[in-house]
């Protein structure tokens, strides 16, 4: 019996150490850049690292910055945004380590890069709106809480990555181990932008409870919550209710 207990403890410790050391491999899934949708046409230099991406509909007075999900090829959204929001200049900039960009993604680096990009383009537009999907919702809430933003759109968002991880890795002391927590709910009090939240009814990645806890922190700045029937985490943009809701948010 004692040997079994020792084996269990050793295995638990090994799994915990593996999770702790590889946790960012579980969180970030960088995808290589594709030129199928056109060559990159905009870049920003942050702390000596060049971040290149796509700017659609250049020259529009209003701008939309889009922050993608953890395994999203951000350029695959180009046809969607060109069709749905032609009156916005839309910025699709892969995170560090994503696309063809150098570096390694971390929570603080993603925040710093996002703020720098916001500051760089601010003078070129009359207003700036933000849109974050899944992991990108954590980046969007950070920028919205620290900068002047017109509209904030959160797609399949969470209250925190920490709580999402707790649901999955309930057997580990996640709060003590996690490096990147993305605590969006804690920042809601500092967000003044008109906010729209989109939920995929059949989301199997972000539990509904995590989105509901985020929603509970909002007050008057929350304009609308759209539940897209039959949509999944990765298919929500294929549904008409999502498209019409996005148009309302950016009208």
TrEMBL record:
Gene3D superfamilies: alpha/beta hydrolase. GO terms for molecular function: hydrolase activity. Keywords: Hydrolase. InterPro entries: AB_hydrolase_fold (IPR029058). This is Alpha/beta hydrolase. It comes from Photobacterium alginatilyticum. The lineage of its organism: Bacteria, Pseudomonadati, Pseudomonadota, Gammaproteobacteria, Vibrionales.
């Amino acid at each position: 019996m004692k040997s079994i207990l020792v084996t269990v403890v050793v295995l638990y410790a090994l799994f915990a150490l593996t999770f702790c050391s590889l946790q960012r491999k579980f969180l970030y899934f960088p995808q290589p850049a594709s030129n199928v949708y056109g060559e990159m046409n905009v870049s920003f230099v942050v702390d000596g690292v060049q971040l290149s991406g796509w700017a659609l509909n250049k020259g529009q007075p209003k701008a939309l910055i889009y922050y993608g999900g953890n395994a999203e090829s951000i350029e695959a959204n180009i046809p969607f945004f060109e069709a749905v929001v032609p009156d916005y200049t839309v910025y699709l900039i892969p995170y560090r380590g994503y696309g063809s960009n150098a570096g390694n993604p971390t929570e603080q680096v993603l925040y710093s890069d996002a703020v720098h990009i916001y500051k760089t383009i601010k003078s070129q537009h009359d207003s700036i709106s933000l849109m974050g999907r899944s992991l990108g919702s954590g980046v969007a809430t950070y920028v919205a809480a620290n900068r002047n933003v017109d509209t904030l759109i959160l797609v399949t968002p969470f209250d925190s990555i920490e709580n999402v991880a707790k649901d999955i890795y309930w057997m580990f002391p996640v709060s003590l181990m996690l490096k990147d927590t993305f605590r969006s709910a804690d920042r809601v009090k500092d967000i003044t932008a008109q906010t729209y939240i989109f939920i995929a009814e059949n989301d199997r990645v972000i539990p509904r409870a995590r989105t509901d806890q985020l929603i509970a922190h909002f007050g008057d700045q929350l304009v609308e919550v759209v539940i897209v029937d039959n949509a999944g985490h990765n298919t929500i943009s294929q549904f008409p209710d999502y498209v019409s809701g996005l148009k309302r948010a950016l009208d």
